[in-house]
Write a sequence for this structure.
């Protein structure tokens, strides 16, 4: 009752005055005055309360309310402009507000130009006395953490309506950029739950369904991507929109607002000092500590608990609080202890939603003030950061990178597009160069000199790192971009770089191939292109018969004899039910939309005479259209599943059926050719229908497992042995399982004894937080089709190890010795991994079992390993079982 009455009181007050004073003591009443009382407010600007018809925190703000409020305020105020900078997957607009004094708004383009010129040393732009500092406030990258989104309303209100000397000083000397909601889809999902289960009588009971929400769906965007891991990779439309603006403005201070677990207090930067990325300058971290001082002062003035230097770090550079720090600015993360719904009982007492909105709002204003207090230092620091890039480049041993993706222009395009997106310049290679046994050809390979303003950012994307000060990571310990894209690349030292190598600057377009010649006999295209699976799916969806070449072959084409690699796709006219003109149209689409050159073959006979296979030989296997059932749900890893959905739906235009794991019983598996279990929690998973899955595989189905899913399928399908029945009861052949392993007396003596204060530092040592390993890929195996080199980089973020199976042909990828390419893994883990399987493909009955130790689709940025997964869909029957002796 207490809360309900209070909310009614708030509602009554909301209509009356913009500044609500509820209690004398803000410590005891967390719902104290929302707005600073040391300024006056322009009565022409509606408060959020007046606009919404309820107090902030009484119910969460819906996305359309946020859009309407901000648009209304921007129309009424000469201090604010608002722009729609993009749309989400679910078609919601993403708003971008620019706030500054009316005088600054009148010359905002000049201000922006001069500011960005500080980051372009060629312009020799000086820091001018009246140059505003640029502060970026962003809310809601994790949609579930919705108090941040609500805090954007009072922030925008304050920027538009507050009056007086202090505010004039702030707005005359700052440009404040507000991205009101980074992740509208996740946020909308969250609010739908809260509104669905919110009661009139506020309920703080943690057991209430309102508070017991599977936040993963709302933390992430439509396809399950954590958008605060996207600052580098920018594979999703939301970060694509706001990162474009970020680079357009190059803010000095970037702040992002979050919620963390309910039993904490309040965090803000700086994070754990020993986990700061070595490319972040010390002065950047000093500035973080200074800019947050007004936020500290605010928290202190109300005697509120907060902490720095724990839990969160500045290591992974693909998140908001770190990315800015390798781009001449500073990043500040804020985390409020979540109230889940409107109120929640916690170990620290009742936590309210309104209280979190208020803290985020008030520290937003405090951080803008902190940026203002350090205006000259921040601007000088930014200028010096970019000005020193050339000197840094001179002192760095690597002078340039050369890279290429032979046979795959599309992958190279995506790679260069991302570098260009981050304002990194790439040039054509003018002369062939051979290094590390690979020849990079002029006209095909590209070169990226290190002496350019984004020197530090390039290093953060290309450096490999295997030595670390700390062994604990809040996120993955490495993200070496050329490894994730699987491009061939090499670093040039000073001796090897000369001006003759560097050609014209390039910005690639998505490749388009010429339409194919009219064929007399058949069409053939190679599998090396990133979009070859999409092309294949076009054909199979139209019921065109297609075959895959299990061996290399040479065919006579309209443009002469051509050597085709394994995995090439042949579409002949033999037995087609689809007309030649229809096939021709699909081939034109493949050339135009997938960027794949389609060859026109003139004869079925090998161009080598009798030495090579003819097109009708047994080495050309028919391919059937995959019908995919992807297992999802609460017990599955939503990131892994979302990555697969995104890859198939967005990039490959392929249909995928998703079903909750708890709802698989009774599903007729015969509708599907492929069943996919990605990572997840499999500890208690022992479904009654496991036998159906085994029978379906025996009958011809393909089951694919990734990470924990692979481990489960190994035990329950591939290596499963029917228990021996005695008197109708199963008798286990060997009861000692790995997990049931008990220490023998002589092993007990060897167990190390440790003091408890070492626990936190040692806890993660055995975990792999995300590191890149080298594998040896069998490129003669159908799962290796499309690859031309045996060495492959793999992202691993579990400790699970797949032992190699008995079938000597079934280990498609084995980890190299030593395996680590970049990132942190303990010596013990590295040894454990050496020579084990990273990818297993084996036949079972008429079906197949394909097991990935790691996630080949990680964060949609592992372009280099996506094809392994797609091969598992198209070629799972293109290899044979081990011959019986
Ligand atoms: Zn968050």
């Amino acid at each position: 009752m207490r809360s309900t009455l209070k909310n009614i009181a708030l509602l009554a007050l909301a209509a009356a005055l913009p500044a609500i004073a509820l209690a004398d003591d803000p410590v005891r009443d967390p719902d104290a005055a929302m707005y600073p009382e040391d300024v006056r407010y322009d009565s022409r600007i509606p408060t959020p309360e007046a606009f919404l018809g309820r107090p902030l925190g009484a119910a969460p703000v819906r996305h359309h309310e946020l859009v309407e409020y901000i648009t209304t305020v921007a129309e009424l105020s000469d201090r604010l402009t608002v722009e729609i900078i993009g749309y989400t997957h679910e078609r919601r607009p993403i708003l971008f507000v620019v706030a500054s004094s009316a005088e600054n708004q009148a010359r905002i383009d000049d201000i922006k130009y001069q500011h960005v010129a500080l980051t372009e040393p060629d312009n020799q732009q000086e820091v001018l006395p009246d140059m505003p500092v640029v502060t970026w406030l962003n809310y809601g990258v994790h949609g579930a953490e919705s108090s941040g989104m609500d805090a954007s309303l009072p922030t925008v209100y304050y920027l538009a309506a507050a009056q007086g000397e202090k505010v004039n000083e702030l707005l005359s000397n700052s440009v404040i950029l507000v991205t009101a909601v980074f992740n509208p889809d996740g946020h909308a999902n969250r609010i739908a739950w809260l509104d669905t289960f919110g009661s009139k009588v506020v309920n703080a009971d943690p057991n209430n369904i309102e508070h017991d929400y599977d936040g993963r769906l709302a933390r992430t965007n439509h396809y399950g991507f954590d958008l605060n891991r996207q600052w580098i990779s920018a594979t999703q439309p939301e970060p694509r929109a706001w990162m474009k603006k970020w680079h357009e403005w190059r803010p000095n201070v970037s702040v992002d607002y979050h919620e963390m677990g309910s039993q904490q207090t309040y965090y803000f930067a700086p994070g754990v000092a020993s986990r700061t990325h070595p490319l972040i300058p010390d002065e950047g971290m000093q500035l973080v500590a200074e800019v947050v001082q007004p936020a500290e002062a605010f928290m202190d003035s109300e005697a509120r608990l907060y902490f720095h230097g724990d839990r969160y770090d500045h290591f992974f550079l693909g998140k908001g609080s770190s990315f800015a720090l390798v781009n001449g600015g500073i990043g500040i993360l804020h985390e409020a202890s979540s109230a889940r719904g409107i109120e929640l009982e916690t170990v620290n007492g009742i936590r309210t939603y309104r209280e979190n909105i208020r803290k985020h709002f008030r520290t937003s204003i405090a951080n803008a003030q902190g940026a203002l207090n350090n205006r000259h230092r921040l601007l000088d620091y930014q200028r010096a950061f970019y000005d020193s890039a050339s000197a840094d480049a001179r002192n760095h041993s690597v002078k340039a990178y050369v890279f290429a993706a032979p046979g795959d222009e599309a992958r190279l395009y995506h790679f260069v597009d991302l570098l260009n997106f981050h304002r990194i310049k790439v040039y054509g290679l003018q002369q062939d160069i051979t290094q590390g046994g690979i020849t990079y050809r002029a006209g095909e390979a590209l070169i990226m000199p290190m002496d350019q303003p984004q020197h530090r950012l390039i290093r953060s994307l290309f450096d490999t790192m295997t030595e670390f000060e700390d062994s604990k990571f809040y996120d993955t310990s490495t993200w070496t971009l050329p490894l994730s894209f699987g491009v061939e690349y090499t670093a040039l030292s000073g001796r090897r770089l000369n001006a003759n190598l560097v050609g014209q600057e390039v910005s690639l377009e998505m490749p388009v191939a010429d339409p194919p010649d009219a064929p007399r006999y058949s069409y053939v295209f190679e599998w090396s292109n990133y979009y070859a699976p999409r092309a294949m799916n076009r054909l199979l969806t139209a019921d065109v018969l297609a075959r895959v070449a299990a061996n290399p072959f040479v065919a006579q084409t309209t443009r002469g004899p051509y050597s085709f690699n394994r995995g090439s796709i042949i579409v002949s006219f033999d037995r087609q039910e689809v007309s030649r003109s229809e096939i021709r149209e699909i081939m034109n689409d493949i050339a135009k939309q997938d960027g794949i050159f389609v060859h026109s073959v003139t004869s079925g006979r090998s161009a080598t005479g009798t030495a090579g296979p003819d097109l009708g030989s047994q080495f050309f296997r028919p391919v059937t259209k995959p019908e995919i059932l992807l297992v999802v749900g609460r017990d599955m890893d939503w990131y892994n599943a979302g990555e697969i959905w995104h890859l198939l739906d967005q990039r490959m235009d392929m249909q995928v059926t998703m079903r909750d794991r708890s709802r698989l019983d009774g599903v007729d598996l015969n509708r599907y050719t492929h069943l996919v279990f990605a990572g997840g929690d499999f500890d208690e998973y022992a479904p009654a229908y496991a036998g159906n899955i085994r029978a379906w595989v025996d009958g011809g189905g393909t089951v694919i497992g990734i990470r924990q899913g692979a481990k489960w399928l190994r035990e329950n399908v591939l290596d499963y042995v029917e228990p021996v029945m005695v008197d109708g009861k199963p008798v286990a052949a060997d009861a000692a399982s790995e997990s049931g392993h008990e220490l023998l007396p002589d092993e007990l003596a060897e167990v190390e004894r440790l003091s408890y204060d070492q626990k936190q530092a040692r806890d993660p040592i055995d975990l792999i937080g995300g590191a890149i390993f080298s594998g040896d890929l069998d490129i003669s195996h159908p799962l290796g089709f499309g690859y031309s080199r045996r060495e492959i980089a793999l992202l691993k973020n579990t400790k699970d190890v797949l032992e190699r199976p008995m079938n000597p042909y079934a280990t498609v990828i084995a980890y190299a010795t030593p395996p680590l390419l970049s990132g942190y893994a303990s010596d013990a883990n590295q040894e454990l991994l050496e020579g084990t399987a990273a990818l297993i493909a084996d036949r079972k009955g008429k079906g197949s079992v394909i097991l990935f130790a790691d996630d080949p689709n990680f964060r949609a940025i592992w372009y280099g390993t996506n094809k392994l997964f797609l091969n598992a869909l198209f070629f799972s029957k293109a290899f044979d079982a081990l011959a019986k002796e």
